[in-house]
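Hi V.,

You were right to ask for the full record rather than a summary. Here it is.
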Amino acid sequence: MAKYSRSALSMKESLKEISEQKAEQFLNTFYFQYGHRSIADLAHIPMAIERLSILAAIALVDETRWDGQERSTRYQNFKKSGFYVPEFASSEERDLYLETVRLLFAEYEAISDEMARYLATQVARPDEMTQEAYQRTLRARAFDISRYLLPLATNTSLGQIVNARTLETQISRLLTHTHAEVRQLGEALKQAARSASYNVNEAAYIRLVDEIREQDPALAERAREVLLKDVKVAPTLVKYAEANRYEQETRRELRQAARELMPPAVIDNGKPGAAFVVDLLEDEPLEIELATTLLYAADHYSYRQLREAVSSLSAVRRQEIIDLGMRHRGKHDELLRPFAAGQAFRFDILMDIGGFRDLHRHRRCIQIEQQFTNLHGYDSPEELSAAGLRGRYDKAMLLASDRHDHVSATDDRNAEQNAQYLLPLAFRKRTLFKMDFAEALYISELRTTPAGHRSYREVAYAMYEAVARRHPSLAKYFRVHDVRQPVDLLKR
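Predicted structure:
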C-alpha cells in the first residue's frame, strides 16, 4: 500500500513486484530515513494477549488509537483465572502477597455465590424466560457486585487490532512503564510483531503436504514453501521501538516538582461517604491548565488542589513546570499527553477502579491517569448490606489495604509497584477526562442505560448533571436515563 502511493504502478503490479526484501528496503528509506510515519497506519495487526494482570491490561489499552476487547468481569467467572506474582526481595513478602490474593479470590467466589442466591429471592423468573437465561442474567448481576473484590493482580486476556504506528508507540510506552510486568509485556509485543504469525490452517496444510509427498516429493516441497511459509506481520516497523527516555526523565522530574509544590497537603477525597466525585472544571488560562495537568499524574491530588497551588505561583515558576514537560523531548518524540489541552469539558473523576475500566474505553477524549492507591478509600455496592454481606466485604477490603501498606513500606525497590497488585477493583482512583461536547453527551447517554453497571451509570449521570447546571439550554439534547429510577434486574 505504501509503495502503491509512491509509484505509478497499479495495485496488482505493485503486489507482483513486492517481496519481503524489497519491502524492508522501501520501509528503511521512507519510514525510517524520510520519517513518513503514516505508512505504518496501513498495517493492521491482530494480537491476542493472554495471562496478563488487570493492572497491566489497563496500561496496555491506554491508547487513543486502540481497538480491542478485554475479557468481561460481568459474563465470566474469574475464580480460576489465576493471578500475577511479581518478583519479591524476600520469600516472606512473597508468601504474604500470595496469602492476600488467595483470600481475595476466596471472598470473590463466596460473595458471587451468595449474591446470586440473594438476587434470586428478590426477583422471580418470568414465565417467558427460561431457567437457564434467568440464572445467567442473575449471575451476571452478581458478578457486577463481586468484581469489586478482584485484585489488580487478577489475570485477564484481551484481543487488539492496531495499526503498526500505534503498536510502535504502544510498545515504547510499555517499555517505559514503572512496573516490571508491563515492561516485559512491551518486550513480548515487540517479539510477537517480529515473529511468525499464528497460522490457523497449519495442521490442515501439513496433512495436505504429507498427502502430496506420497505422490510427488518435489511437488510436496513446493507446496510446503507456499502453504507453510512463516508470515511476519511487522518485522521492520517495530524494530526500533525502545523505552522512551523523554517520558522516563519527565515523569521523574514532574513527580519531584509536585512534591515540592504540595508539601504535605491533605489529599481531597470528596464528600465523606460519597461513592464517587465528578468535578466539571471551569476554564483557566492555557498556561495554568498545562502546568496543572503535567503535575496531575505525578501524585494523588485533585485537579482543583493543584490548580490553586499553580495559580499562586509566579508566571516564571509556572513556565518552569511547563519547561519540565519539554526539556527531554527528542527529535522524533510526540508531545506528552498532558499537552493535549484546551478542551471545553474537563472532568476530574474519582471513582472505583472497576468502573474506571469501563469509562477508560472511550477513546475520543484525553485521559490523564493517576496511579493506583488506597488513599481515596473504596466503594461498597449497596446490595451487600441488603444481603447481609457488608461486614465480610469490609473486612476483606481493610485487610487488602493493610497488606498494601505493609508491602509498599518494605525496602524492596519495587515495593510501591508490587503493593498496587493487592488493591481490589473497589478502591478508587483519579482520572482527568478532557473532551468536547459531543463526547460528553455520548458518554452520558451510553453509560446511563439500565443494563449498565451501577458505578459508571452514576458517574455518567453526574457528568450530565454537571453540564446541565453550567449550560441549561443544552440539557434537553441529552437522552439520558435517570439512574434514580429502579432497575429491572432481568433486563440486560
